């Protein structure tokens, strides 16, 4: 069965370190998204990609970057982790056509000390 | 800006009770989606409503899209503890120039007590 996975599921890091969160999908979807979820803010879009070599900034992109070298993967990098980036991160994917229904990964809980 | 407001924000009920949660906007959406998120997991799509006035049923869950396509409701009959979770509505973000992005509501946290 097709799926979307994230790793690690939990990560503790220190302020200033570079961190990369992995997202891998086997749906063969062109569209991939990264969100962060915080109490009181719901799901906020960080970056998104509509295909290989395509990346775009979302509403809360400062301090984050992504790259898309193949269809299956969209890793999210925190260049220099800050305590404000402590959050739960979700990756999602969707088809290009249709109703744009998104399939989510299980999430990564990141703590920046 | 297309905003989706959900109410109530929190709801705690006893097993067997009925409930309705709402998703409202001042903007027209081409469709609305409902997701359920359980603790420690990602949101899972429940249903997509597309046509104004449309009603869809998923076992004890009934979803309705408003006639003007600006709002939607989720009604649960005889709630069970397994219905506990965060319910999110979402709609395509037309202002992005592409409907592939979604606008999410802030969610309704439902707790069903045994």
Overview of the structural elements:
The complex is a heterodimer of chains A (113) and B (114). Chain A has 113 residues and is mainly β. Chain B is mainly beta and 114 residues long. Chain B is globular and about 45 Å long. Chain B starts with a strand and ends with a strand.
Query: Can you count the beta strands of chain A?
Result: 11
Number of helices of chain B: 0
Report how far the terminal alpha carbons of chain B are from each other: 40 Å
Structural class category of chain A: mainly beta
* CA-based shape of chain A: globular
Largest interface: A-B, 23 and 23 residues
Gyration radius of chain B (Cα, Å) is 14 Å
Structural class of chain B: mainly beta
Low-confidence stretches of chain A: none
The best one-word shape of chain B is: globular
Largest sheet of chain B: 6 strands, mixed
The portion of residues assigned to helices of chain B is under 10%
Nutshell version of this structure?
Chain A is an all-beta fold. Chain A is built from no helices and 11 strands. In chain A, a hairpin with a 3-residue loop joins strand 4 and strand 5 (42-51).
Helix/strand layout:
The complex is a heterodimer of chains A (113) and B (114).
Chain A: E1 4-7, E2 10-13, E3 19-25, E4 31-38, E5 42-51, E6 54-57, E7 64-66, E8 76-78, E9 87-94, E10 103-104, E11 108-112
Parallel strand pairs in A: 2-11
Antiparallel strand pairs in A: 1-3, 3-8, 4-5, 4-9, 5-6, 7-8, 9-10, 9-11
Chain B: E1 5-7, E2 10-14, E3 19-24, E4 32-37, E5 44-49, E6 55-58, E7 61-65, E8 71-76, E9 85-92, E10 102-104, E11 108-113
Parallel strand pairs in B: 2-11
Antiparallel strand pairs in B: 1-3, 3-8, 4-5, 4-9, 6-7, 7-8, 9-10, 9-11
Observed structural traits:
heterodimer, A: 113 residues, mainly beta, seven-stranded mixed sheet, four-stranded antiparallel sheet, 0% helix, B: 114 residues, six-stranded mixed sheet, five-stranded antiparallel sheet, 51% strand
